[in-house]
Specification:
The complex is a heterodimer of chains A (266) and B (402). By secondary structure, chain A is α/β, with parallel strands linked by helices. Helices cover 48% and strands 14% of the residues of chain A. The radius of gyration of chain A is 17 Å and the shape is globular. Chain B is of the alpha/beta class and 402 residues long. Chain B has two domains: 158 residues, Rossmann fold (3-Layer(aba) Sandwich); 216 residues, Rossmann fold, CATH 3.40.50. Chain B is 44% helix and 18% strand. In chain B, a hairpin with a 2-residue loop joins strand 11 and strand 12. Chain B is globular and about 55 Å long. Chains A and B meet through helix 3, helix 5 and strand 6 of A and helix 1, helix 8 and strand 11 of B. The complex binds pyridoxal-5'-phosphate (PLP). Pyridoxal-5'-phosphate binds next to helix 5, strand 9, helix 10 and helix 14 of chain B.
């Protein structure tokens, strides 16, 4: 039961949604980011989205931008994601990689897919690649039995929802609102409809992200989605606390709050 | 090459172009592409655009022969296509009027734009004022400092200028920020993109709005006697260059030369020559040549000219380069500034530093070809915005010259 999809299904069988937690590798350093990911696993995250920092993150808000910039400045490399994936899997969660397209393209799609699979990663999430232009990646992913998660948005037309759902292997990522990543006061009101429409288009697993910030948000989303994706508010824990012990404490506290949320607890 | 290269329709130009964007933006780009496809065949749209070009921009722009400057270019015949004389001072207005008209057709009330030198921002703010649209311009903080006068101009025109403090704080980061705004406000907002790069339909649409430069210039050169031996233009994202090249693409005997910003020299790593010093990759929604490290992280560009200081280039140029139909040269800061100073003193024309890169290319070419050659240079903009940069460069503010 190492794949993210199995993990999400297993959570659903327990009568709850899965908690999918994002952190970029390399922030504030590779070692510390890996310890932070493991801390999130210990505190109840089911799946870790290992982010690859990118110089031009057009779909990310200020929090993730700050972390990506700092990670790159500190020397983070694409290949660092594999060590993070190994550590996450060893800690008992499953791992997917989240990356903008160009870093994967330059690494070599086939090479990347092979190394990710060898590290025990189960798939990738691609925020700036849509299925209509993803043939090359999909071939590499298929050759290494990796799942590919594409995003759907409130603006997706019914035709594009069908196309995206059909091309997705693993879970579909439904963006709760039209906007970039970041902490928010509430979860987008269009999320529930988008999950329903994605299911109607044939999706088996639909996870919701963008703006999920509190345990209460997670609880709300868990009532209609198979998984809850959280990123910026976790990154925030690492930005706000320079001291590593304090950062990990904050991260564990936040992750537990979210883990209770996906279980319908407060 | 028997097929016409003119007016290629995209989304792909050979291996380049495409649309690599988050799903959330696809609907907006489809809507825009659709509106543009309808508008381009609608006589009402073309006649409105032609009216604005004539009565507002001041088209056609003239062609000026510059013999005193040409004496420094091997004595060749050098002609300038005077886009500097357009309202707002550069070719950018041609594109912006087209996109603002489209915005009206889409029923949207707000436009966003990125800007480097500020010329596209000024043009966007101008069109927004003319057509009663709210206008937000994203500009890298570093550029707001080196182009302060254009910031003030945009504000005078009623636009909101947002300094972008992330990343390298230049044009590429302003584009990122504009995309972020667009994703969140797509219902009311159209993105007026400033160059012939980015995701489909921008490379084709911007090229079409700039095609007028080459169509006019080709006819003007024929009136003057013959087609030129070469057409030279500066290349940032590539809109003024593709605008003047397009009409000549099928004239196989006319050399097309794009001058990229070589900064301190391509071998120093401090430059903005995406074709001359970059590799294929994906940036800002399309596949083209970009400046990037081994991991695909964008390398910040460097140029004395804010308008050329961009680590990517439009996909049609990448295609023309690999086909060998156009040549791409790199011109250093120092070469551009020499040409800048020369045009000022020999002809009384103060060019934009961007355009001075094309002038430097013409000097190099003229010296290679000699006095029989005829060279057409796209003078994409005027240098009023660059007076401070040039004055500092030449040491004119202390009362002395370097
Ligand atoms: C006068 C002038 N020329 C050229 C450029 C470069 O843009 P492009 O390559 O799209 O023509 C700019 C950009 O700001 C400009 O202001």
């Amino acid at each position: 039961m190492s794949g993210a999809s199995d993990r999400i299904r297993h959570s659903n069988a327990e009568g709850r949604a899965a908690l999918i937690a994002y952190l970029p590798v390399g922030f504030p350093s590779v070692e510390r980011s890996i310890r932070a990911m493991v801390a999130m696993v210990d505190a109840g995250a089911d799946v870790i989205e290992v982010g690859i920092p990118y110089s031009d993150p057009v779909i990310d808000g200020p929090t993730n931008q700050i972390a990506a910039e700092a990670a790159l400045l500190a020397g983070a490399r694409v290949a660092d994601c594999f060590a993070a994936v190994r550590a996450v899997v060893a800690a008992g969660a499953s791992a997917v990689v989240m990356s903008y397209y160009n870093p994967l393209l330059q690494y070599g799609l086939e090479k990347f897919a092979g190394e990710l699979a060898a590290a025990g990663g189960s798939g990738v999430v691609l925020p700036d690649l849509t299925p209509d232009i993803a043939q090359e990646w999909l071939a590499a992913a298929e050759a290494h039995s990796l799942d590919t998660t594409f995003l759907v948005a409130p603006s997706s037309t019914p035709e594009r929802l069908h196309m995206t759902v059909a091309a997705t292997t693993g879970f579909v990522y439904a963006a709760s609102l039209m906007g970039v990543t970041g902490e928010r006061a509430s979860v987008g009101s269009q999320a529930e409809r988008l999950v329903r429409d994605s299911r109607a288009a044939g999706a088996h697993l639909v996870c919701v992200g963008l703006g999920v910030t509190t345990g209460a948000h997670a609880r709300e989303v868990a009532t209609y989605a198979d998984g809850v994706v959280v990123g910026s508010v976790l990154v925030r824990c690492l930005i706000d606390h320079v001291n590593e012990d304090q950062a990990l404490d904050a991260l564990r506290t936040k992750t537990s709050e979210l883990a209770r949320g996906v279980r319908g607890e407060s | 090459m028997t097929d016409s290269l003119q007016a290629a329709t995209g989304p792909y130009f050979g291996d380049f172009g495409g649309r690599f964007v988050p799903e959330a933006l696809v609907a907006a780009l489809d809507e825009l592409a659709d509106a543009y496809d309808k508008a381009r065949v609608d006589p009402a749209f073309s006649s409105e655009l032609e009216r604005l070009a004539r009565d507002y921009t001041g088209r056609p722009s003239i062609v000026t022969e510059v013999p005193r400057f040409a004496a420094h270019a091997g004595g060749a015949h050098v002609f300038l296509k005077r886009e500097d004389l357009n309202h707002t001072g550069s070719h950018k207005i041609n594109n912006v009027l087209g996109q603002a008209l489209l915005t009206k057709r889409l029923g949207k009330t707000r436009v966003i734009a990125e800007t480097g030198a500020g010329q596209h921002g000024v043009a966007a703010a101008t069109a927004a004022a003319l057509m009663d649209l709210e206008c937000i311009v994203y500009m890298g903080e570093e550029d707001t400092e080196r182009q302060r006068l254009n910031v003030a101009r945009m504000r005078l025109l009623g636009a909101t200028v947002v300094p972008v403090k992330t990343g390298s704080r230049t044009l590429k980061d302003a584009i990122n920020e504009a995309y972020r705004d667009w994703v969140a406000n797509v219902d009311t907002t159209n993105y007026l993109f400033g160059t012939a790069a980015g995701p489909h339909p921008f490379p084709t649409m911007v090229r079409d709005f700039q095609r007028v430069i080459g169509l006019e210039a080709r006819a003007q050169m024929l009136d003057l006697g013959a087609l030129p031996d070469a057409v030279v233009a500066c290349v940032g994202g590539g809109s003024n260059a593709i605008g003047i090249f397009d009409a000549f693409l099928d004239d196989a005997e006319v050399r097309l030369i794009g001058c990229e910003a070589g900064g301190d020299g391509v071998d120093t790593g401090r430059h903005a020559a995406a074709i001359g010093g970059g590799r294929p990759g994906v940036l800002h929604g399309s596949r083209s040549f970009i400046l990037q490290d081994a991991d695909g992280q964008t390398i910040p560009s460097h140029s004395i000219s804010a308008g050329l200081d961009y680590p990517g280039v439009g996909p049609q140029h990448a295609w023309l380069a690999t086909l060998g139909r156009a040549e791409y040269w790199s011109v250093t800061d120092a070469e551009a500034m020499e040409a800048f100073g020369l045009l000022c003193r020999t002809e009384g024309i103060l060019p934009a530093i961007e355009s001075a890169h094309a002038l430097a290319g013409a000097m190099r070419l003229g010296r290679q070809l000699g006095p029989d050659a005829t060279i057409l240079v796209n003078l994409s903009g005027r240098g009023d915005k660059d007076v401070e940069t040039a004055a500092v460069y030449f040491g004119l503010l202390d009362g002395g010259e370097s």
